[in-house]
Amino acid sequence: MTHTTHPTVDELFDISDDRLRERASLKWSNVDVDVLPAWVAEMDVHLAPAIIDALQNAITRHDAGYPGSAEGVTQAFSDFARDRWNWNIEPDQVSIHVDAATAAAKLMRHYAGADRSVMIMPPVYNRFYDWLDVGGVRPVEVPLTDVPNGGYFDLDGIEAGLKAGTKVILLCNPHNPLGRVFSRHELSELAELAERYDAVVLSDEIHAPLVYHGVEYSPWLTVSE
Length: 225
Description:
By secondary structure, the chain is mainly α.
């Protein structure tokens, strides 16, 4: 592929099956040759030229030590949030973790109430159950309503769970696997319930930059502290 500033969709996805199966990643290294893994989170695309350049420059410098200052990535996120979502967040408000799962497990363990429960809203990303297990907490399921039409919060069920003692809500927005982007109004209703019962919402927003044009996405921290 010829590196350009804006590669076409065909170029981005132009990777042969043989090349994909040479990869050492979890998606491709743990399946038999007759299995076609169809994960979404690990996408089969070429890296962006800017990422390739950054990695190649680090290798050229033999720069393979422990990570240093995170100022570059926190500033980049702050700039991205402002440009994409009109969300003003200072770089020093951002903390760096190994991955979303590790951070979520630690936070759930810290904030879970006496009954060690965390609320989730199935059908939801199946690895959430692993995150809860690593965090040493148990799931309280409050399924989304009207799933065929997108899925909506069951506010009565959520309130019942909070009233019973659950202190953490693990939110997935945009929702995986439904693709639902919850509106600012819906998120505000959830925030009001969480505040009323002194609960904490942990929002997995890993797919936030991937919404369709014309769809308004609201980061959780823009509707609730």
